[in-house]
Amino acid sequence: MLTEADSRPLTREVVDAVIARHPDRTGDVLGILEELQEAHPLKYLPQATLELVASLTGVARAQVFSVVTFYAFFNLKPQGRHTVTVCRGTACHTRGSKALLTTLEHAAGVQHVEDEDGTATSFTTPDHHLTVRTVACFGQCALAPVVTVDHAIYGRVTDHKLRKLVAALEERGGA
Ligand code: FES
User: Fold this and answer.
1) Distance 16 CA to ligand 1 centre (A)
2) What whole-number distance in Å separates Cα of residue 80 and Cα of residue 126?
3) Cα R_g (the chain), whole angstroms
């Protein structure tokens, strides 16, 4: 269950502690932001946290914002506690990845949302249990269709296997 505390900006103490681990605070703003995102319960960088990083490191606010918008691994919105990523490359599409994505959308009760080029999607369940993303190719096409759950990769994923993986996440909850 999402608590109000989960979505708050990181505290000054947490930001101070992370910055203190980086002696070259202006040169290592990328590493600082990575650590701060990892430290947030919902794996994202709230705007107030970005402002704090700018003021404490002396890096221009515009530069901090350009870093987090340039690198795809930075999140500016709250993420789920678990992430399922579905490959939408050609090999995986041919072997049913679209149907896997639809299964996840139905399980989450979420409408399909694609980027303008029709290749990328990302959504998070309202309770922040799960974020679903797509990628263009994992480079594991022989195992198509490929899905990752948190950091584990699964090949030749069927609808049944995917449902079992998602059910296992529900049993784990926020763990
Ligand atoms: S197309 Fe899916 S891993 Fe390459």
Assistant:
1) 41
2) 9
3) 18
For helices 29-39 and 47-57, give the axis angle rounded to 10 degrees.
140
Domains of the chain, by residue range, sit at 4-70, 82-172
Q: Which atom of ligand 1 is nearest to the CA of 138?
A: 3
* Ligand 1 centroid – CA 157 distance (Å): 12
Report whether residue 87 contacts ligand 1, using a CB cutoff of 6 Å. yes
CATH of 82-172, picked from 3.40.50.1370, 3.40.30.10, 3.80.10.10, 3.40.190.10, is 3.40.30.10
User: Would you give the DSSP letter of residue 10?
Assistant: P
Tens of pLDDT, residue by residue, the chain (175 residues): 556 566 688 899 999 999 999 999 989 999 999 999 999 989 999 999 999 999 999 999 999 999 999 998 899 989 998 999 999 999 999 999 999 999 998 887 776 665 555 556 788 888 888 999 999 999 999 999 999 999 899 999 999 999 999 999 988 765 5
DSSP class of residue 147 equals: E
Q: Is 135 in the pocket of ligand 1 (CB under 6 A)?
A: no
- The span from the CA of 115 to the CA of 30, in Å, is 26
Cα–Cα distances (Å) from 43 to 98, 117, 165, in that order, read: 26, 26, 21
Which atom in ligand 1 lies closest to the alpha carbon of residue 89? 1
